[in-house]
Task: inverse folding
């Protein structure tokens, strides 16, 4: 549990957008909208929900049996009906829904809403041929290609529960997620492409499904040439599966509280957590925030750079923009390959108007200088967004000045896998304060409190909490109700975010960082337990502890402290072996940047490793109360 702390708030400059920006935004007057919400929260959310299509309506907007909520009780819908059918049969059938750009120049694919609708239906019918139906679990482990999104939507179309796994994860992480949900089918590709190199995915899947008895079939998108051989007893080609399949597939009527997807986020202790999101509430939250927070209009060209393996890619790369009827860009390119201007060139080429990325990318661009973005015409941009970690004032100002040319509002968003949607931001048209995410959006009641749940005064740090339920909140941790309850029972009456924050006199909230054992590296949540388990699985390691070390580019780097088994000697060779072992086990995003061999680790008398002590010593800080240490 975090201790109280004081923060000296800088008298940061406010950036005030022009009056046209506020007047033309969907949200309009923030204060007015927020008071409308407070006056009748259920009526507020009901009005948003009525902007979408339902097969049958709810008999009650919300039931709240602490700590469990149900939203739009008794209603039936299908999120793909709202993402596709609603547009195809209402003036948008020939509007571009999705543009994909590969690493190679000229490698491009475009889908209108009608074409995406047909592709989703064909693959949904293909999944049906494999025996996949409502409630079955499907694991999607793919690169960022259109088929990844088609697979997600096809699962939702027939009521199957999708679990998307980031294509950078290794064998153990993938195996854990496949077995965790009991996936019936795994969908993958033979390769992903990164920095000009083919990254083999099929081999990782083949290892990951060993001792995964729930898996019946593996669907493989073969991209490489010549095409790899498939093992017909288990594997089937993506295109063979949809060959001859009908382009019509009736959407399954889903109860609002049926599971839409399970997305794993790194756990602070033990295994990763399967966050459960449901069909109705998640749909309303994704639609509401995409439309009103990003102010997406019918002529916008929208680009969220997040991989759909993360929640940002789910809500703001796939479902949110499609629910609003937007035109979206997705790409397999990395921000600095083949040159540091590639993303700016794509903004110019596709006329991107709304751009959503991570502070890590922004800081990386800052290091390469202003020359690269200044080579390109970025005048199409009208809204800039940030996600994944706090946007520090220096990065804010660079983003605002160099990319937005001092005319684009910056929507710095705070939210989590567990929340499903934006919770805190500075809505378009409101004054922006660098370093502060902003205020709770209309529909959300957030606060900064002490350990007793009491609001702390401005300038004093505390725990960021949400005081009331919201539609897109997670419903549980899959298979682990106790872990779900912990979110609501840590501070009575509140959802505890595990983030430290401070609130200014103006109500703006600055998020400081995590209180738990998650490490945010380049916007990705990495669980200390997962990395430590990977290290300990090496034959030379007896114990391990990892911490996050602040880094100006990535936000944090991972440092590991390792105790070797008797008879093993520290060496540079062994360090390299351990880094490689973590890479192969969890993937490159989780590898330690440094490893220190130690003889002991600070522990409580009950045996819990005190990572905060390691971090304090590493950073030259006071380790605080160490009276509970065993030695």
Result:
């Amino acid at each position: 549990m975090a201790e109280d702390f004081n923060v000296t708030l800088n008298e940061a400059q406010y950036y005030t957008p022009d009056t046209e920006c506020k007047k033309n935004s969907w949200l309009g007057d923030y204060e007015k909208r927020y008071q409308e919400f407070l006056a009748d929260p259920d009526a507020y959310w009901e009005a948003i929900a009525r902007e979408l299509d339902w097969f049958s309506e709810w008999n009650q907007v919300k039931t709240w049996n602490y700590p469990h909520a149900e939203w739009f009780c008794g209603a039936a819908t299908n999120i793909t009906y709202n993402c596709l059918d609603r547009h195809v049969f209402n003036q948008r059938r020939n509007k571009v829904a999705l543009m994909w750009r590969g690493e190679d120049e000229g490698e491009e694919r475009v889908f209108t809403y009608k074409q995406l609708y047909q592709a989703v239906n064909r693959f949904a019918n293909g999944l049906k041929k494999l025996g996949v139906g409502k409630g079955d679990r499907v694991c999607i482990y793919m690169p960022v290609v259109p088929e990844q999104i088609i697979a997600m939507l096809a699962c939702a179309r027939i009521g199957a529960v999708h679990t998307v796994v980031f294509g950078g994860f290794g064998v153990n992480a993938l195996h854990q997620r496949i077995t965790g949900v009991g996936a019936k089918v795994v969908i993958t590709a033979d390769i992903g492409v990164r920095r000009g190199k083919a990254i083999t995915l099929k081999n990782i899947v083949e290892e990951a499904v060993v001792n995964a008895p729930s898996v019946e079939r593996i669907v493989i998108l073969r991209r490489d040439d010549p095409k790899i051989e498939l093992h017909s007893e288990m594997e089937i080609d993506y295109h063979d599966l949809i060959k001859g399949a009908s382009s019509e597939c009736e959407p399954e009527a889903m109860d609002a509280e049926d599971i839409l997807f399970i997305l794993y986020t790194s756990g602070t202790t033990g295994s990763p957590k399967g966050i459960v999101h449901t069909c109705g509430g998640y749909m309303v939250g994704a639609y509401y925030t995409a439309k009103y927070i990003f102010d997406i209009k019918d002529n916008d060209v929208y680009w969220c750079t997040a991989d759909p393996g993360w929640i940002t890619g789910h809500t703001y790369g796939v479902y949110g923009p499609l629910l609003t009827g937007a035109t979206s860009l997705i790409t397999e390119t990395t921000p600095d390959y083949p040159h540091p201007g590639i993303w700016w060139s794509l903004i110019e080429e596709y006329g991107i108007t709304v751009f959503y990325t991570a502070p890590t990318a922004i800081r990386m661009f800052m290091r390469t200088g202003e020359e690269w973005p200044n080579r390109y015409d970025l005048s199409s941009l009208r809204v800039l967004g940030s996600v994944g970690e706090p946007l520090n004032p220096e990065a804010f100002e660079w983003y605002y000045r160099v990319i937005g040319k001092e005319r684009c509002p910056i929507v710095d968003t705070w939210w989590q896998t567990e929340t499903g949607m934006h919770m805190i931001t500075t809505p378009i048209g409101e004054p922006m304060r660098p370093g502060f995410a902003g205020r709770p959006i209309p529909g959300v009641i957030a606060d900064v409190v002490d350990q007793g749940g009491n609001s702390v005064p401005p300038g004093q740090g505390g725990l960021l909490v949400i005081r009331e339920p919201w539609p897109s909140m997670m419903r549980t941790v899959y298979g682990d109700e106790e872990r779900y309850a912990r979110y609501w029972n840590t501070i009575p009456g509140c959802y505890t975010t595990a983030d430290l924050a401070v609130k200014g006199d103006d109500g703006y909230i600055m998020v400081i960082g995590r209180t738990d054992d998650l490490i945010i590296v380049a916007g990705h949540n990495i669980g200390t337990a997962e990395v430590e388990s990977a290290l300990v699985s090496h034959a030379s390691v007896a114990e391990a502890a990892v911490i996050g070390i602040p880094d100006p580019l990535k936000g944090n780097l991972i440092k590991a402290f390792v105790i070797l088994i008797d008879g093993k000697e520290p060496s540079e060779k062994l360090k390299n072996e351990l880094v490689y072992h973590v890479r192969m086990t969890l993937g490159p995003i989780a590898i330690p940047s440094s490893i220190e061999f130690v003889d002991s680790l600070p522990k409580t008398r009950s045996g819990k490793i005190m990572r905060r002590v390691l971090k304090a010593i590493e950073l030259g800080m006071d380790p605080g109360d160490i009276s509970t240490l065993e030695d």
Notes: Residues 1-5 have pLDDT under 50 and may be disordered.
